[in-house]
Structures are given as C-alpha cells and as structure tokens.
Amino acid sequence: MPIDSQPICYSLIIPVFNEEAVLPVLLRRLDQLLARLQGPAEAIFVDDGSSDSSPIVLQALVKRDPRYRYIGLSRNFGHQIAITAGMDAAQGKAIVVMDADLQDPPEVVEQLIAKWEEGYDVVYARRLSRAGESRFKRATAHVFYRMLGRMTTVGIPADVGDFRLIDRKVLNVLREMPERDRFVRGMIAWLGFKQTEVAFHRLERVAGETKYPLFKMARLAVNAALGFSDAPLRLAIWCGLVVSSLALLYGGWVAVLWMSNDSHLVAGWSSTIVIVSLLCGMNMLMTGIVGLYVGRIHAEVKHRPLYVVQERLGFERELAAAIQPAMRAVYE
Ligand code: UDP
Ligand code: MG
To answer: In this structure, which CATH number among 3.20.20.80, 3.40.50.2000, 3.40.50.150, 3.90.550.10 belongs to the domain 8-229?
Structure first.
C-alpha cells in the first residue's frame, strides 16, 4: 500500500499564533521527527488568527508536503480552542499536542509514543524545570497548580501543560464534552483512563515572545478554577457564616453590657452595628446558597458525559446465549 493511503497513526497538533520567528527551526525539527516516527504521521498546524507571515509560510508548506495540514481560524480564539480545532480534525490513532516554540522538544514526543505503545491512553509531559521564563511566571504557575490541586477533586497533574499524547478512544470522548470555556488538560484528567507521565526539562522559547501575556494566563486560571471546582461558590457561604456568627457574638456581648448598665455602651451605635453586620452576613449566606444552585446549573450546561466507560466485557456472550435458544426453536 502506498504511504499516502495507509491510515494515519500519529497526529501532531501545533497551535500557531504569530510564530513567524520560530517557524524555520520548527519546520526543520518537525521534518526530522516525522521521518523518525515508525508509521504514517500528520502534523496539523492550527493558525489562531496570526497577523504575521505564519499562515503564508504554513500554507505554502502544506501545498508541497502531504504530511502537513493547515487549519486557519478566522480570528484569535485562544490556545485552548486552537488545540480543540486541531483535535477535531486529527485522524491518527495517537494524538500529540505540542507548542510551536519548541519549548516542548520534539524528541520527547518519541518518549510519549513509547509509553503509548506500552498501553497507556494518556501520556502527559511533566515539566521538571522551566528555562527562560520569568521568575514571576514560574512563581504564579507554581502557585496556580498547587491551588488548583487543592480546589478540585479531579486529579489535575501539577506542572503539566497541554504537551501530551492521547489515544483515539480518549479523543472520542473528549469530543463529547462541548463546554465552551475549555481547560483541555483538566478535561483530559477528568476523563480518567490509563494515564502516565514522562518528565522533561522545558527549554527556552527558540525565538519570539510569549503569546501568553498576564491577562490570558489569568483567564486560563479562572477557566480552570471555575470549570473544575465549586470552591469559589462555596466561599460566599463560609464568609456569610463567619460574618453572621461574629455579628451574633457581638450582639450577645452588647446585650450583656446593656444588662449590666455598662457606661461604655453608646446608645444606638452598637445595635446598628449588630443589625447591619448580621444582615450583611445573612446576605452573603443567601448569595452562597443561590451560588450552589448556580453551580448545579453550570454543571448541567457543561453537558459532560455522566460517566466514561473504558471497556465492556461479557455482554456479547449474554446476547449470544439469549439468541441461541430462540434460534434453536426456529430450526427444530
Ligand atoms: N497560542 C495560540 N493562541 C494564543 C496564544 C498562544 O495558538 O492565543 C499558541 C502559541 O503559538 C504557542 C502555544 O500556543 O504555540 C503556547 O504559547 P506560548 O509559547 O506563547 O505560551 P508559553 O509557553 O509562554 O506559556
Ligand atoms: Mg511557549
């Protein structure tokens, strides 16, 4: 069978946003990687609304080399959506997401594939170190992953980006999760399956600037927290409980002072404070309760599957056993 007509084994998904400075190096390294892979592979570039020459370079490449594919989004939809667009188009049995700036070294892809061949369905690449990133970015990332770990019940691995390999069956269920504010690494963790990691040292960006300025990072962090935890919703309940308890305690103390005819008691002021803080606390508590319902609605509208089945065994046998007597009756 000619190579072109064989089913694709590996799909590499590479989101690209104004990466013209890194493209020459990226394309050379990708070429080497694709040549080394055992089995037909495709590399899908998703242009996330670049305004530089990246789309022109990539389109020209795709025209002359059948291993490459190109998807051009109509504007900048953000990294997570770009990855999703690439996943929707991927044809491979194993799908690898990697950054365009070579911070995720192509050599690690081969290690991810080796683990997949051992039978793992999700192989994520964990960052042992992060070269060339500002101390602020490293510190905020560190805090973010630890806080997220405490807030969620889904085991989202720490220090892991979107650089990972997933099996086709994981992708198929991931595509049934239509939520709009996507935190893809969390969604994959939520799905379960047989997961493992490969550790690597994250390199410096080969050229160009980061496309994740502070506001985009903050938005991703908010998406992660809201999509995978209802701790922020419960916060109002806790605040409400604390404030109203303090108000009640203070009210009790004021009552004691009043009964003992304490001269420090300013008439009118204490009762006003007690009433205002009690009402404030009750307000927060009620907001928190409404929040719990909002949380339920939020969970419903995400339309995630209720559960994900990894395998089903024995059902065919039962079916065969049920059919056989009936068939026998027909022939007798
Ligand atoms: N990216 C994207 N859309 C965006 C921002 C980034 O497609 O809105 C791509 C970018 O081209 C790169 C990857 O996402 O391939 C990761 O971005 P970057 O390297 O700038 O993030 P950092 O490594 O600094 O966190
Ligand atoms: Mg980068």
So the answer is: 3.90.550.10
How far does residue 38's CA lie from ligand 1's centre (Å)? 28
Question: Is the Cβ atom of 182 under 6 angstroms away from ligand 1?
Answer: no
**Domain residue ranges in the chain:** 8-229, 231-301
Ligand nearest to the CA of 216: 1
Give tens-digit pLDDT for 239-256: 999 999 999 998 888 888
What pTM was computed for the model?
0.84
Full DSSP string of 88-157:
HH---SEEEE--TTSSS-HHHHHHHHHHHHHT-SEEEEEEEEETT--HHHHHHHHHHHHHHHHH-SS-PP
| pLDDT tens-place string over residues 258-280 | 888 877 777 788 888 888 988 99
Q: CA-CA distance, 210 to 208, in Å (whole number)? A: 7
Could you tell me which residues are beta bridge partners of residue 122?
166, 195
Q: Which residue, chain included where needed, has tokens 């080394």?
A: 36
